[in-house]
Amino acid sequence: MRQARRVRAVELLDRLAAQHPDAHIELLYETPLDLLVATILSAQCTDQRVNQVTRELFRLCRTPADYLALGAAELEELIRPTGFFRQKTAAILGACMAIMERFDGRVPESTAELDSLPGVGRKTAAVVASNAFGRREGIAVDTHVGRVSRRLRLTRQSDPDKVERVLMTLYPRERWLEVTDVLIFHGRRVCFARRPRCGDCSVVDDCPSALPVDRR
Ligand code: SF4
Fold it and tell me: By C-alpha distance, which of 91, 63, 66 is closest to 76?
């Protein structure tokens, strides 16, 4: 039974990956610190808007010390368009302070160490560890990954940490980053939250949540 679930899950991923061969993280970054900051900014905000904001931000700030020198007031103004700018400013400055104090100014590589930074949650830690350092220690589960996983009945869990644990049992470690990239692409382009485009979905024949034919 468990093996059958894994086989089905891998088949679904293969077919979705074929539909989205260019699936990749859409946040722009050059360094691990850039990606950490961009991922914090992406909460409740589109990647396009984050990329607009970070164009200027990354020109000004290349190191954790640069963010701390910039200070809260100026950082808040720069990131205001991404929303929740006070909380995000506190998270960025808290993380930068901890990186300076505990990691000698270098962004740590492991998901556990990243997760230990103030203002950095499990999802952000997994995004940075997997994309910036090539570590396969977890699967980043955002709103799209969670929704698509539930619609495909890969899981019935709603808590992101529980969804992640299920996905980690279904997929081989070397595909964990691909799971995130492909499911996010599918959620953004086809399996919309409000009105999924089931008629354009490559796995419609194996989706328990597919809309009836006359509503696609
Ligand atoms: S068939 Fe519809 S609900 Fe199912 S994964 Fe595809 S787009 Fe989403």
Answer: 91
Q: Which of 34, 142, 161, 205 is catalytic?
A: 142
pLDDT in tens, 27-71: 999 999 999 999 999 999 999 999 999 999 999 999 999 999 999
On whether the pTM is more than 0.90, the answer is: yes
The pLDDT-based confidence of 1 (bands split at 50, 70, 90) is low
Is 142 assigned a catalytic role?
A: yes
Catalytic-residue membership of 206: no
Contacts of residue 149, Cβ cutoff 8 Å, sequence gap at least 6: 141, 155, 163, 166, 167, 183
Neighbour tally for 167: CB within 10 Å: 25
Helix ranges (DSSP H) in the chain: 2-19, 32-41, 47-60, 64-70, 72-79, 85-102, 111-115, 122-133, 143-151, 160-170, 176-189
**Pocket residue to mutate for ligand 1, from 11, 209, 215, 216, most atoms within 8 A of Cβ:** 209
Return the closest-CA partner of residue 13 out of 152, 164, 213, 158: 152
